[in-house]
């Protein structure tokens, strides 16, 4: 981790302030903080023991476009088996309850990234079980959004630069929260939270590093895909499945996302289920253009 200047405060769900705005955070200060005797210790529990997540997860996966990835109940069960050994610290479950209640889009997004990452990891990584368990398969990647005020998270109009910055800060917030919950800054789930918006060419945020971790790259692709096909507060219409895949192919061509992960995503989306290593990708664009999209449009402060 590079030295980070916190542009926004970091607090837990129960409003315990961990770091204030403006803190200069080095690896040493973070290490000292997570190991200090004044911080709490959190027990971990298996995610599948939370029946409500599994129920929601299964019903969301039966909907388009996810039903294409998991057309049969056996395929769902196979992924569920892989996820059985994923354990997370107790506050993560409470965070999911919070999202389910106040920001259902984020809740559904997290559950879908979790499922898709496990599916792609199984296709791409020989030691997938280990990667899935250690990274919690992306289940905790957006936990930093609890530090974003709900009025910004749910805002339907274009964002101001400050609001966009608040949202982008969730990668750093999530990293610090997970370091605190796991008591281990080297934990793979912390790395996922910090790096899931980084890109293969170094053009992402918050550190602008070049991605080089296979599981983070799988979660990054799953994250982009779900973000595109899901309606967002700022975009009432979602990309259709085809347009979302075309966008992702474009990103892979521009070295933003890893090609083999993108190919595995497309292969899983095709009825014939080809081997991703033998996949040919056409150039014809057939996805529907979006209407009502204000993504990337900024307004001046006060211009709302
Ligand atoms: Fe994110
Ligand atoms: Fe995300």
Question: How would you sum up this structure, described in words?
Answer:
There is one protein chain. The chain has a domain of 210 residues: Hypothetical protein af1432 (Orthogonal Bundle). It has 14 helices and eight strands. By secondary structure, the chain is mainly alpha-helical. Strands 1-4 form a two-stranded antiparallel sheet. A hairpin with a 5-residue loop joins strand 2 and strand 3. Bound molecules: fe (ii) ion (FE2) (2 copies). The site of one fe (ii) ion (FE2) has 5 residues, from helix 6. One fe (ii) ion binds next to loops.
Summarize the structure.
By secondary structure, the chain is mostly helical. It is built from 14 helices and 8 strands. The model is unreliable at 292-299 (pLDDT under 50).
Features:
304 residues, mainly alpha, Hypothetical protein af1432, binds fe (ii) ion
In this entry the ligands are: fe (ii) ion
Cross-sheet strand order for the largest sheet: 1-4
Shape: globular
H/E series: EEEEHEHHHEHHHHEHHHHHHE
User: The CATH topology of the domain at 4-38 and 50-224 is what?
Assistant: Hypothetical protein af1432
Largest sheet: 2 strands, antiparallel
